[in-house]
Design brief:
The chain is built from four helices and five strands, in the order E-H-E-H-E-H-E-E-H. The protein has 130 residues and is α/β, with parallel strands linked by helices. It holds the Pfam family CbiX.
């Protein structure tokens, strides 16, 4: 993948350590595709979303793809995270100013309904009843 593109995985954040560990683990899985991967949390955990953006910019990226590690679209996906990113209401991409630099932001959809999710759920169900 282009070295100018960074990936920010966004998690909700929780006082339970496992949440942050899971987000960081998922983020590490993307290292084969993206040279520059960071995490950022909306609530309760560090680093915050803006910290993750800052770390990517320190590495010299000029474009940031943001993936919210959420299942569905709710207020966090539709309002809170875009506001933290500096995106206009309803926009999924744009240019933002951050620490005096301009950077392109691309905001991906959450996981939502996908047949692969059903397959994972079925595996978990079968495991539970076996």
């Amino acid at each position: 993948m282009d070295k100018n593109i960074g990936l920010l995985i966004v998690g909700h954040g929780s006082s339970l350590g496992y949440n942050g560990e899971l987000v960081r683990s998922v983020a590490s899985e993307f290292s084969d595709e993206f040279e520059n991967v960071e995490v950022g949390f909306l609530n309760s955990e560090e680093p915050k979303i803006k910290d993750g953006i800052g770390r990517l910019l320190e590495r010299g990226v000029s474009k940031i793809a943001v993936f919210p590690l959420f299942l569905s679209r709710g207020v966090h996906i539709l309002k809170d995270i875009p506001r933290e990113l500096g995106l206009e209401d309803g926009k999924r991409k744009g240019k933002i100013k951050f620490d005096g630099r301009e950077v392109d932001i691309f905001y991906a959809r959450p996981i939502e309904n996908d047949k692969r999710l059903t397959e994972i759920a079925l595996d978990r169900i079968k495991e539970a009843i076996s």
